[in-house]
Amino acid sequence: MKKRKKNGKGKFGILFPPAVGYSFPLFLNLLKKNRILPRYYMRVLGIVVINIINMPFRAYERKFINPRIAKSKITENPIFIIGHWRSGTTLLHNLLTRDEQMGYVTTYQSVFPDTLFNIAGKFIFKNFTKLLIPGTRKGDNVKLNPDLPQEEEFLLGCAHPFSFYYFWLFPEKIMDYYARYIQFKDVSDDIMINWENDYSLMIKKVLRNLNKSHFISKNPPNTGRIKQLLKLFPDAKFIHIHRNPVEVFLSTRHFFRIMLPHLQLHSINEKQLEESIFIIYKKMMNQLLQDKHLIPENNFIELRFEDLENAPVKELKKIYDHLQIPGFEDASENFNNYLLNSRGYKKNVHAIEKELLDRIVVEFRFTMEAWGYEVPTNIKIL
């Protein structure tokens, strides 16, 4: 765990993997199956110590609280924001969660999913989280706070071994994890049932935690899981946001480069990382193009990140109208306030080698043509 200089707000700026909230046997099994570099032994020790301290609180919630919540009902159809990483999913999620009827996985819940309703445990670990996490995410300057929206993929592998985001710990396995946890290759019926039950329980805990009626998800791995999500939630609503594939590649590479050193327990070289991004992008987008017709037309909408950036309220109105989500007028003031407070946000600026750009244009031509993109003019070509 890397420690940075304490800032004026009392934050130490330490990023720690969500494994601190995992089932302890599950985490030990991950360690046994994967290579750990000696320079990360102290990080492993830190994860183990926090995990053990959290163990009694986690066990209590799983035994006495989760079964009660599991009996509750999800009364409104879930809403899933899908799209490749760095396509604008975070901006869209942050906007839609300003609607006061929307429930979402918080950053705290994504790390300590079973220390959510245990009063003593939540007091300890939420304050611990507030003290340690940085004010902004290193990869893209997005604000961080225990109560802000987060992706549920971080917590889906906490009790049973099923999460694509294990790759943050073990990046050498990223393609294996993609095949197993997004494409569902060689996954037993028992594990699938556990995953479905965990997903439903997670949503119920979200709605109970925030006292909301609608669950809204932002989880890029779900872009390749439409069939499985429709099996679980046949009337779910989907919002697909896409962005220029050249910018997506460069932003994803930059984000992984910056974030992995803070979370990984072994290393991946630059060439492996780059190849993985190419392969996963093509697999995920092809799967989406193949499966999106399975979603009823009135439950699916696509938008461009560029349109959301330029006219956010207009695009949000389109979403509410098409998916027949009530409450747009009531939420409009919150949307505008969020946009007003976000004016100072600065995106990363990218440069690209001519050879790499040519490869992206060739390999991602299928999405550039599908969504009408050209090579962006704001990127510096080296």
Outline the secondary-structure elements.
Elements: H1 24-33, H2 41-70, E1 79-82, H3 89-96, E2 102-103, H4 107-111, H5 119-132, H6 153-156, H7 174-181, H8 189-210, E3 214-218, H9 226-232, E4 237-242, H10 245-263, H11 270-291, E5 300-304, H12 305-310, H13 312-323, H14 328-341, E6 351-352, H15 354-363, H16 365-371, E7 380-381
Parallel strand pairs: 1-3, 1-4, 2-3, 4-5, 6-7
Overview of this structure, please?
52% of the residues lie in helices and 7% in strands. It contains 16 helices and seven strands. A five-stranded parallel sheet has the order 2-3-1-4-5. Strands 6-7 form a two-stranded parallel ribbon. α10 crosses α11. The N terminus is likely disordered.
Task: Summarize this entry quickly.
This protein is α/β, with parallel strands linked by helices. It has helices at 24-33, 41-70, 89-96, 107-111, 119-132, 153-156, 174-181, 189-210, 226-232, 245-263, 270-291, 305-310, 312-323, 328-341, 354-363, 365-371; strands spanning 79-82, 102-103, 214-218, 237-242, 300-304, 351-352, 380-381.
Fraction of helical residues: 40-55%
Radius of gyration: 20 Å
What strand order characterises the main sheet?
A: 2-3-1-4-5
Quickly give the structural class. Answer: alpha/beta
What proportion strand? 5-15%
Terminal-residue CA separation: 35 Å
The oligomeric status of these chains comes to: single chain
Sketch the topology as an H/E string, one letter per element.
Answer: HHEHEHHHHHEHEHHEHHHEHHE
Counting DSSP E segments of at least 2 residues, the number of strands comes to 7
Q: What's the mean pLDDT score?
A: 91
